[in-house]
């Protein structure tokens, strides 16, 4: 199997689906001739032409609005929003239009599209190139939210998202775009939505994370095992809506302890939902409170971003706190 | 009448000097008239039902039937109509049944959208009628998607999107017109300038000389038409659709009309506009003048009108009686149609609701 980074895996997934299904179209700001500011759509316009891969005016509401119309009239649009931080001009289109289309038409009209968008910090991008807006989207009934953490999942999950009959927000961990490398299956390859992956097995504690946090969590887990003697399960959720509750409970019921890690701010973040659900469903299995290691409840800072982002030290500290409770 | 505003029949139902009446056969002329009158009578009846507390809400179109139905008549069945929330008349003309419409008002077990939305928020995939939502202007960018999907797959479809004068102040209007201009999208932007956005008059929406003139900045066509002249509306919309179908791009049509009634059943326009103003516009009523035109042309008579009124009344009564008898949709429909398949958390929430309903907790 070829070794790819996440950018190459995303490109390969788009190419694979566009060859298989000629209703798949790609558009957004700079995605056509230039191939995207992160180059994820490089070469697609050459192969598929400018009616299937095209640049748009700089208008996120227009891009998503167009995807809503196209997806109701026979196409499978895969628009790109250049940074997740810029999705907000389209939030009305997502929250009031796309997410409700199936519901409000009694199942007659649907919006099978995928919005690809790079999210997260760690690239010295400041407020506006670092945000993790998943909680707003997960909170909106009717939208699926998918976050890969490695090249193989990026390809497999993107292909499943394109084939899904509901609107999917595909959040790409831009910090890992080129940093994460791995083998990726050639041709048609899919990873089912809604299934988490247990990426490290240990019996003492469960760490639940997704996307760009996975390599950080895995490093922390190795160090905790070596230095602190704490052997952890690491669960990569991969799909946040709908998430894999069975996998979460299976691990937490085994270990009795859970630490949730995400970059987004803590209050009303996805970790809050996970912690509440774990307490509702597995209270008697728990030996300590469910802890969260997250971005702080502040705007995303510039100079001190590595202090803001959950890092190995903060994760290990939470693991120790949980173990010694 | 300004010479830049398209018009064919005047307020007395006479053909304006120099105007050419479009070639529409008698049966179609009567079909247009019937749809307009049905729209008016349905609105009257349903507003009464709302005041009686039998339905919760209603959006009427009195005064705007010419704009709504004339434009819909210009489109082919394969063309998508993307409604605002005042275009039931366009749906009726397409063949949307009064039964379906009324079931939706009651949100009953036969409602095609399964009790999911307020009255007047219908949709019909088979008739290519997009789904109504309440936010203003948010449907306008969808038209580019509907139109371009057809263009990219080699289908000669045009998308027509309705909105009011107030919606032109929303960013979505600008975004959509701009994109349509860039791609020469096969779209007709149909603005019902009914003079009022709830209580806010047009002069508070824009300092622009007209709404149609805004098209120029987007590189699309812009035209004004007498919105109370169903034939003129048909004519300009047919021309816009033809241009779009030929790949010549989008048109912004400003139909100058008037909302004779309240914004919705929740509004009382006496608080913000004069009866005199309403009276002036009632003299330009689109249905009255079209009836006069039909009689003048020898296509219609008082006797036929009386008979039609009777038929419509009967049809409306029958639909209301049937719809009112039906109960609400099944409880599980609350959780259906969120996703194609119901995920675990919604199944759990459905079970939780059922358990509560079955429990002894009062």
Helix/strand structural class of chain B: alpha/beta
The neighbouring-strand order within the major sheet of chain B is: 1-7-8-4-3-2
Ends of chain A: how far apart? 45 Å
The number of helical elements of chain B comes to 13
Content-based structural category of chain A: alpha/beta
**Total E-strand runs of chain A:** 14
Give start-end ranges of low-pLDDT stretches of chain A: none
Oligomer: heterodimer
Q: Could you give a short account of the major beta sheet of chain B?
A: 6 strands, parallel
Share in helix of chain A: 25-40%
Report the end-to-end length of chain B measured between terminal Cα atoms: 65 Å
Largest sheet of chain A: 5 strands, mixed
Order of helices and strands of chain A: EHEHEHEHHEHEHEEEEHEEHEHEHH
Write up this protein:
The complex is a heterodimer of chains A (325) and B (362). In chain A, helix 8 crosses helix 12 (312-323). Chain A has helices at 6-20, 44-48, 60-72, 91-97, 101-104, 134-138, 151-163, 213-228, 245-255, 270-282, 305-308, 312-323; strands at residues 3-5, 24-28, 53-55, 76-77, 114-119, 144-146, 168-173, 181-183, 197-200, 205-209, 232-236, 239-241, 258-265, 291-295. In chain A, the strands form four sheets. A five-stranded mixed beta sheet of chain A has the order 9-11-10-13-14, sandwiched between helices. A four-stranded mixed beta sheet of chain A has the order 5-7-6-12. Chain A is α/β, with parallel strands linked by helices. Chain B is α/β, with parallel strands linked by helices and 362 residues long. Chain B contains 13 helices and eight strands. In chain B, the strands form two sheets. Chain B has a six-stranded parallel beta sheet with strand order 1-7-8-4-3-2, sandwiched between helices. Chain B has a two-stranded antiparallel ribbon with strand order 5-6. In chain B, helix 9 links the parallel strand 7 (221-226) and strand 8. The longest helix of chain B is centred in the first third of the chain and has 26 residues, at 26-51. The model of chain B has no long low-confidence stretch (mean pLDDT 97). Chains A and B meet through helix 3, helix 4 and helix 5 of A and helix 5 and helix 6 of B.
């Amino acid at each position: 199997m070829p070794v790819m980074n996440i950018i190459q895996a995303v490109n390969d997934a788009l190419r694979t689906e566009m060859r298989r299904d000629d209703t798949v179209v790609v558009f957004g700001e700079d995605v056509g001739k230039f191939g995207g500011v992160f180059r994820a759509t490089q070469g697609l316009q050459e192969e598929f032409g400018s009616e299937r891969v095209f640049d748009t005016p700089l208008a996120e509401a227009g891009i998503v609005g167009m995807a809503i119309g196209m997806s109701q009239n026979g196409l499978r649009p895969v628009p790109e929003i250049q940074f997740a931080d810029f999705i907000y001009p389209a939030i009305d289109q997502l929250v009031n239009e796309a997410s409700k289309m199936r519901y409000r038409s009694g199942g007659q009209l649907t919006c099978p599209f995928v919005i690809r968008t790079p999210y997260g910090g760690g690239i010295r991008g400041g407020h506006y190139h670092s945000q993790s807006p998943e909680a707003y989207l997960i909170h909106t009934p009717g939208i699926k939210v998918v976050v890969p953490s490695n090249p193989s999942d990026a390809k497999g999950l993107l292909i499943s998202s394109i084939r899904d009959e509901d609107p999917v927000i595909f959040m790409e961990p831009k910090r890992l775009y080129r940093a994460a490398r791995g083998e990726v299956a050639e041709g048609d390859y899919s990873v089912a939505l809604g299934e988490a992956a247990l990426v490290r097995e240990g019996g003492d504690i469960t760490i639940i994370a997704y996307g760009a946090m996975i390599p950080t969590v895995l490093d922390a887990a190795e160090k905790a095992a070596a230095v602190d003697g704490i052997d952890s399960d690491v669960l990569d959720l991969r799909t946040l809506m709908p998430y894999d509750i069975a996998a979460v409970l299976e691990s937490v019921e085994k270990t009795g302890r859970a630490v949730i890690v995400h970059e987004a701010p803590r209050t009303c973040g996805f970790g809050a939902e996970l912690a509440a659900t774990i307490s509702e469903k597995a209270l008697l299995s728990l030996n300590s409170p469910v802890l969260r290691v997250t971005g702080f409840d502040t705007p995303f800072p510039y100079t001190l971003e590595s202090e803001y982002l959950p890092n190995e030290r903060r994760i290990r500290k939470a693991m120790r706190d949980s173990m010694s409770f | 009448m300004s010479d830049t505003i398209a018009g064919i029949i005047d307020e007395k139902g006479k053909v304006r000097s120099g105007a050419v009446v479009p070639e529409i056969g008698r049966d179609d002329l009567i079909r247009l008239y019937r749809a307009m009158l049905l729209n008016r009578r349905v609105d009257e009846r349903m507003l009464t039902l709302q005041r009686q507390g039998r339905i919760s809400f209603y959006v009427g179109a009195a005064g705007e039937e010419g704009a709504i139905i004339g434009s819909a008549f210009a489109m082919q069945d394969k063309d998508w109509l993307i409604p605002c929330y005042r275009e039931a008349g366009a749906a009726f003309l397409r063949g949307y049944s009064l039964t379906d419409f009324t079931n939706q008002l009651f949100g009953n077990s036969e409602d095609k959208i399964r009790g999911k939305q307020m009255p007047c928020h219908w949709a019909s995939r088979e008739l290519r009628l997009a789904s109504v939502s309440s936010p203003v202007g948010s449907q306008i960018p969808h038209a580019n998607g509907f139109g371009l999907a057809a263009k990219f797959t080699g289908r000669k479809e045009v998308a027509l999107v309705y909105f009011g004068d107030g919606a032109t102040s929303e960013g979505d209007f600008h975004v959509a017109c701009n994109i349509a201009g860039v791609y020469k999208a096969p779209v007709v932007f149909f603005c019902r300038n009914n003079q009022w956005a709830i209580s806010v008059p047009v002069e508070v929406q824009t300092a622009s000389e007209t709404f149609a003139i805004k098209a120029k900045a987007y590189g699309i066509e812009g035209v004004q038409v007498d919105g109370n002249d169903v034939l003129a509306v048909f004519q300009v919309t047919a021309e816009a659709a033809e241009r779009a179908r030929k790949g010549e791009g989008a048109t912004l049509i400003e139909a100058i009309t008037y909302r004779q009634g309240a914004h919705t059943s929740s509004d009382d326009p006496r608080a913000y506009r004069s009866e005199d103003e309403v009276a002036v516009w009632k003299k330009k009523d689109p249905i009255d003048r079209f009836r006069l035109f039909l009689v003048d042309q020898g296509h219609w008579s008082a006797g036929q009108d009386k008979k039609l009124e009777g038929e419509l009344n009967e049809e409306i009564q029958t639909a209301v009686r049937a719809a009112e008898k039906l109960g609400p949709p099944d409880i599980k429909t609350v959780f259906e149609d969120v996703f194609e398949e119901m995920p675990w958390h919604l199944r759990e929430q459905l079970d939780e609701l059922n358990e509560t309903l079955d429990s002894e907790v009062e």
